[in-house]
Amino acid sequence: MLLAALERAGVTPASAERLHAFAYLADVLSPVWGLNPHEDVVFKTKEGPYFVDLQEQLDHLVILDLVHVENLGYKEIGKSITRVIGWYELQLASPCLTDLLGKLGARASGTPIDPLDRLLNEYLTNLASALSTVPDDEIALAATVDASYADSSRGFSQIIELRQRSRIGLAMLSTDTKANASVAVTERFEDFLPEGSAFSAAEKVYLYASYLGRKMVANG
Amino acid sequence: MVKARAVRSDEDIIVDVVSSAPEELAPSFADSSEVFHDAVLDLLEHRLRGKWKFEDSSATVAVFVFADTPTRPFGTREGVTRVEHPRTRAHGLFGRIFFLDNKATMGSFIDIPGDEGETLFWLRENGFGACSAVLADKVSGQASLMPRLDDTEEPFYTPIKRVRRKISVAGLEKALDAFHIKKMLTPTRGSGAWARSRAKDYVPIKNAEIHIQRRLKDYLGAWFHEKIWIEQEVKTDVGRIDLQILVKSSSATLGLACWGVIELKVAKSYSTPRDEDRPTSKLTRVTHKTNMDGVVKGYGQADAFACDRDVNNSFLEVFDMRKVKSPDLLDDSRAKEKAEQCVKKVRAKVRKMFGSSEEIR
Question: Is the complex ipTM more than 0.85?
Answer without folding.
Answer: no
